[in-house]
Amino acid sequence: MKRRPWSVFSGFVTAALLLCVSGFIASPVLAQKPGGVLEFWNRTDPPGFDLHRWTSHTPWFAHPVFSTLVRYDSSKKEFLDENIIGDLAERWEVSPDGKTYTFYLHKNVKWHDGEPFTAADVAYSFEKILDPARSVIAGRFPGFGRLEVVDDHTVTVHMEAPQASFLPILAQGYAVMQPKHKAGSDGKKADFLKVGTGPFMFKESVPGVSYTYVKNPDYFKPGLPYLDGLKIYIIRDRPAQRAAFVAHRVNMTNPTAGMPTQSIYKQHRKRVPNGKFSIQDFQMVRLLWFNLKGDKPWNDVRVRRAINLALDREELVIAGVGDLTWGRIGGVFPPGNPYALPAEEMAQLQWWNRSHEERLAEAKRLMKEAGYENGFKLRLVARTIGLYKRILSQAADLMRQINIDVSLDLPETAQAMGMREKGDFDMYFEVMYANIGDPDEIRGYHVTGGPENWTGYSNPKLDELFSKQSRATSIDERRKYAHEIERILAQDAPVIPTFFIRYGVGQHPEVKNWTPPNTPYSTHLQLEQVWLEK
Amino acid sequence: MRDYLIRRILLIIPTLFGALTLIFFIMNILPGDVALMILGEDTGQGSAADLARLRAQLGLDRPLYVQYLSWLWGLMRLDFGTSLWTGVPVFTEIWVRLPVTLTLIVFSVCLSMVLAIPIGIIAALKQDSWIDYGLRIFTISGLSIPSFWFGLMVVLFLLLLFNWFPPLNYAVIYSDPWVSLQQLAMPAIVLGYRQAAVSARMMRSSMLEVLREDFVRTARSKGLRERIVVYIHALKNAALPVVTIFGVEAVLLFSGAVIIEKIFNVPGVGTLIVDAMGHRDIPLVQGVVLLIVVFVLVVNLLVDVIYAWLDPRIRYS
């Protein structure tokens, strides 16, 4: 009898201990550690801070601050439709005919200045995005009709025609939501970054030196971001970029476009053996663009095909980046992309399954048939970038094998772009800008009168195919039209793809949960999911 | 002397005006379009309509003479315009970078003086000895080795041996002296070495010439200690051509600083003007050129004043 109180007490203690232990085992141990400032470099200041107006360099500086309605899952590298998730939109519905999109917005979102984010801001942002005077991405929404504000947290987009790329283009990242109450702010000034809804808030900048961001304490996703802040340093010189990474002055290289060649990649790996390195396959291809606006030999499709055959892509890759593994060869869509022609068919179309000698013989035959057996002069214009010089020197050598006397004109960027605009070139070399590899992204480069149609090429059949794929509702249907587009471009050759860009990214071991995407610019650059192991 | 100084200061104005007019028209003659640059440096994007709009926003659609007069009028009100690339006032852009470059130049000049004068004197006093030969090898190396190569080797050496690279934060000497010192020490050594080499060689040959003068022989024969003869009598006379060299080299340091700033990632005026040139950012280029012209004129004036102080025989009428 005397033992009973003790046994009861010990029973309680044992039960309590068991409960504690089971609770400990059951609750997940969080791997992510909050805190720390992530530091990386970019090679230049951005030309502006408004993602609607400036599409190069600006994303690294603006994405941490702004959000989109939908985005791509930042844990995945690929830009597939199934990887699209909500951002400011908690969920959305698409009508069966693909002409109505209803977005239900998160209700607890505030701008960085404390004002609430509502559907009115979405309406304002779309109005701006679709205005060519205030946005360079206005042309990416050909099916857009009108936007209806249903209530403070619901908007409906009514499309004039279905556009299969509508959600992907929204998710890609340029179509950020901007505050209506700050309409008219100067996008060229860093102050433009002060009011967003993103995981980080802009704090200060020293032009040419650094940009500092701090954590948004009122971010609408609980627990995020993990980091206390970001710091972007401006380092222009490649050796200085490498030195800063090796000396651990930064946690990582540029998050998406750190190392443009394999030799630079290898140098980084050698000097930081415990770092984490990855290679990104961008969706962008560098193309040779013919000027078809005058009466020139290359207006004859046989001449263009001959040049296409003479340009050995593998030699161009080796000349440009030193290693075949660092350049992917394909058409206007990257290899492995859902819209790219199967590799075997592309190889057959482009004669890549034949030897160089066979291709050269066929090229000479075509030149002779076109009446240019003795060749002609051709002026090849491009920006004076080291990589371009190497590629084009090799291209010039290859074209000389079919008696084309190539003179390389490689002025500075500003001058080269001016020459391109004026049509002051025979052939121009430049990247065709695509982030997610969607046909609607490259439409403007190839349709008649397109804003980026530098060649002056016009093919009504191609125009029709681009329209059809844009309105198609299934990916299989889009793929069918995209394949036809590739066939036409390969056969007509108004442009000659060389190879797709690859970049390397390096991170020191403390950087966790950063998955560099297969594009330099996307909503991945919000960096909300990245954390630092201290 | 006072009249001379006033005259020299007043002469700065037409010299500035001439230099700036030249730069304005040269920059506008150069091919290239800053509006295209802004719209898509990497991507080459930009429709004709976008460009026209941007040019209008930037004021580039106005006639050239209107742009010129507008800019001149701004200068008179001390408004140096706004950078076409960043939208930041030119004055602010330069003001942020100027302390860094000035500190770098001052460090380099001080370092070169600390090296050049003793090296020149010792080499002259120990003429044709192994000390003289060693110092001459040191100075000839400084003249022969390109600064940019030397800078790259310094970066590599520090990185390979010590895994060290200067801090990346923006720091000026008066706000964060330790970080500023870390950032500028190596670039100052690289720039200062070359300047020291030039000045040391001039110092040596000047000292050799002065040491052979009659007044020096007289001073020695009077029984003065060698230290007094060299540092009081000979040095003052031998320093005259070296002062001129310092003045010229201080100006050349600006151009040398451009490359060295890039190598060491120093956010100075040198990188600012190179980037501005690449972007065809005319207002910013003009602002930096204005600064450089003023710097050159002021340095030359200082050299003349020091010259007159060193040599009482020189009087500017």
What does this entry look like structurally?
- The complex is a heterodimer of chains A (534) and B (317).
- Chain A is of the alpha+beta class.
- Chain A is built from 15 helices and 17 strands.
- In chain A, strands 13-12-14-11-15 form a five-stranded mixed sheet, with helices on both faces. Chain A has a four-stranded mixed sheet with strand order 1-10-9-8, with no helix packed on it.
- Chain B is an all-alpha fold and 317 residues long.
- Chain B contains twelve helices and no strands.
- The radius of gyration of chain B is 24 Å and the shape is globular.
- The model of chain B has no long low-confidence stretch (mean pLDDT 84).
- Classes of the chains: A alpha+beta (534), B mainly alpha (317).
- At the A-B interface, helix 5 and helix 12 of A face helix 2, helix 3, helix 5, helix 7 and helix 10 of B.
Structural class of chain B: mainly alpha
Oligomer: heterodimer
- Give the biggest sheet of chain B: none
Mean pLDDT of chain B: 84
- Sheet bearing the most strands of chain A, described? 5 strands, mixed
In spatial order, strands of the major sheet of chain A run 13-12-14-11-15
Low-confidence stretches of chain B: none
Instruction: Report the strand count of chain A.
Output: 17
Brief account:
Helix content of chain A is 32%, strand content 20%.
Secondary structure: elements and pairs:
The complex is a heterodimer of chains A (534) and B (317).
Chain A: H1 4-26, E1 37-42, H2 58-62, E2 70-72, E3 84-86, E4 89-94, E5 100-105, H3 119-129, E6 144-151, E7 154-159, H4 166-172, E8 200-206, E9 210-215, E10 229-234, H5 238-246, H6 262-271, E11 276-290, H7 301-310, H8 313-321, H9 343-350, H10 356-369, E12 376-382, H11 386-400, E13 404-409, H12 413-422, E14 427-432, H13 439-446, H14 460-471, H15 475-492, E15 495-507, E16 511-512, E17 531-532
Parallel strand pairs in A: 1-10, 12-13, 12-14
Antiparallel strand pairs in A: 2-3, 4-5, 5-7, 6-7, 8-9, 9-10, 11-14, 11-15, 16-17
Helix pairs in contact in A: 7-10, 8-11, 13-14, 14-15
Chain B: H1 2-29, H2 34-39, H3 48-58, H4 64-76, H5 90-125, H6 130-144, H7 147-162, H8 177-211, H9 214-221, H10 226-264, H11 269-278, H12 282-310
Helix pairs in contact in B: 1-12, 5-6, 5-8, 5-10, 5-12, 6-8, 7-8, 7-10, 8-10, 9-10, 10-11, 10-12, 11-12
